[in-house]
Design brief:
Elements lengths: L1 H23 L39 E5 L2 E5 L39 E3 L2 E3 L37 E5 L4 E5 L35 E4 L3 E4 L39 E5 L2 E5 L36 E5 L2 E5 L25 E2 L7 E6 L2 E6 L34 E5 L2 E5 L40 E5 L2 E5 L10
Parallel strand pairs: 13-15
Antiparallel strand pairs: 1-2, 3-4, 5-6, 7-8, 9-10, 11-12, 14-15, 16-17, 18-19
Protein name: Balbiani ring protein 3-like
Organism: Microcaecilia unicolor
GO molecular function: serine-type endopeptidase inhibitor activity
Length: 474
């Protein structure tokens, strides 16, 4: 009895001494933070077990004494325990009528390696970056190999994943994703979704990525071209189609250096914003009490040296002060004339003329509101009109023309000749090197009216209606 009482008294004295030492700060409490997950050692017999520390106090600064497979070492703490919370399907989760009180509010409150997920301590899920290699078609597995190397990515090195490969789960080098981002979802999906075309980026050809677009499919990655989009243009309600049309999804859908830019509720292709040298003409007094649609918001959207300036009721592409508006006519000589003298005669150009090339000479010529070149053939037949993205050639950059395109108008690359093909000649003609009795009607498509082309007909160059059905040239 005396022995039992003595042991009890000794335990009380030790407990009081420990509390006094802890209160005095001689023995600090456990340092805050959580130890990282121990690394995996393939063979523990080969592990050189030599403890670097015993308690957190043995480690400098904020480091903690952590187990690293078979030894204890000083490591910096992490805020949360390693691993991720498991994904919970909201359709399968059942909300109890009388929910239990929260079990935790932080990983600190959970024992061992469990994490605090939705106020409940649960085992973590380890998910390393990258994707598993595609499983080969061989060997044909008749039963699962019992020799499993891993159960989750947490059993593998940081650059490996636990993959179903070769009849068993094993740690394999993770495949990183291909460069680029998947295009955004801009439409609603119709269920059920189609069968997936791919599982990872490496199932796709070349630079294509495996993206979720109403089902997994191989698509071109989102391409971000250099530069910034111009500011959105103001569109007057009378010029709006009443629909939100998307003429592009990503920059890669736009030609040349153009970017896919937001224009109200629409997406359109525009050249990146840029300023041109020169100044805008003197601000004109508003002639209209109501603001009209903008033709541009940046100089880069205007042709040649034109700048985006305020004009009457909105922004428009205008020439700098002292510059004659309009474009030079095409450098096409009249029918029957092949050469011109190489002279310069631009000393007395009027306000409506520019010094323009014609053959080998430079001469004062009356300008045109249209750029040289022709619009491509637009075979689209529309059930409704889309919004016009341009109204004249001056609102198109470079050599582009304002043409009928996709149920509206848009700036497109010009053709050097009119679209279509000439009908096949019906007569066997002599070479056209002989001087004809009468001058030719045309020598270029520019000499023909409307959509007609300059073609061989009846052994002469004449303006005829072209063919657009290439499958039936006769």
């Amino acid at each position: 009895m005396k022995t039992t009482y003595g042991i009890f008294l000794l335990m009380v004295v030790i407990s009081l001494a420990t509390d006094l030492i802890s209160a005095s700060g001689i023995l600090p409490e456990r340092k805050p933070g959580i130890c990282p997950r121990p690394r995996k050692i393939a063979n523990r017999l080969l592990c050189p077990c030599k403890d670097e520390c015993t308690l957190d106090i043995d480690c400098p600064e904020n480091k903690k004494c952590c187990s690293d497979s078979c030894e204890k070492v000083c490591k910096p703490p992490i805020k949360d325990k390693p691993g991720q919370c498991p994904i919970i399907d909201p359709l399968q989760s059942i909300i109890p009528l009388f929910p239990a009180p929260p079990e935790c509010s932080s990983d600190y409150h959970c024992p061992a390696n469990k994490k605090c997920c939705l106020h409940e301590c649960v085992p973590p899920v380890y998910q390393h970056d990258g994707q598993c290699p595609q499983k080969p078609d061989y060997p044909k597995c008749t039963e699962v190999d019992p020799a499993v190397d891993c159960n989750s990515d947490g059993d593998c090195a940081e650059d490996e994943k636990c993959c179903d490969y070769g009849c068993r789960f094993q740690c394999m080098q993770a495949l990183k994703e291909k460069p680029g981002d998947c295009p955004p979802m801009i439409f609603l999906c119709i269920f059920p979704l189609p069968e997936p075309q791919c599982k990872c980026d490496f199932d796709c050809a070349k630079e294509e990525k495996c993206c979720s677009l109403c089902g997994l499919k191989c698509v071109r990655p989102r391409e971000e071209k250099p530069g910034k989009c111009p500011k959105p243009s103001y569109i007057h309600p009378s010029d709006s189609s009443g629909f939100c049309d998307h003429f592009c999804k990503v920059d890669g859908d736009c030609p040349s250096n153009k970017k896919c830019c937001d224009e109200g509720c629409e997406k359109v292709c525009k050249p990146p914003a840029a300023d041109k040298p020169g100044v805008c003409p003197t601000c004109l007094i508003k002639e209209f009490p109501e603001k009209c649609s903008d033709e541009c918001t940046s100089d880069s959207e205007c042709a040649g040296t034109l700048k985006c300036c305020f004009d009457k009721c909105g922004l428009a592409c205008l020439p700098c002060p002292g510059e004659t508006p309009g474009f030079c006519p095409p450098k096409v000589l009249p029918p029957g004339i092949d050469v011109t003298p190489c002279i310069v005669n631009c000393e007395h150009c009027t306000e409506e003329e520019k010094c323009c090339p014609m053959g080998c000479r430079l001469d004062c010529m009356k300008t045109s509101q249209e750029k040289p070149g022709f619009c491509p053939y637009d075979p689209v037949r529309c059930i409704r009109a889309a919004r016009s993205l341009c109204t004249r050639d001056s609102g198109c950059p470079g050599d582009e023309k304002c043409c009928s395109h996709m149920c509206g108008t848009d700036c497109v690359a010009a053709l050097s000749e009119k679209p279509g093909i000439c009908p096949a000649p019906t007569d066997t003609c002599l070479p056209l090197t002989l001087s004809p009795a009468t001058p030719p009607v045309c020598s270029s498509d520019y000499h023909c009216p409307d959509d007609q082309k300059c073609c061989i007909k009846d052994c002469e160059m004449k303006c005829v209606d072209p063919l657009h059905d290439l499958s039936n040239p006769s």
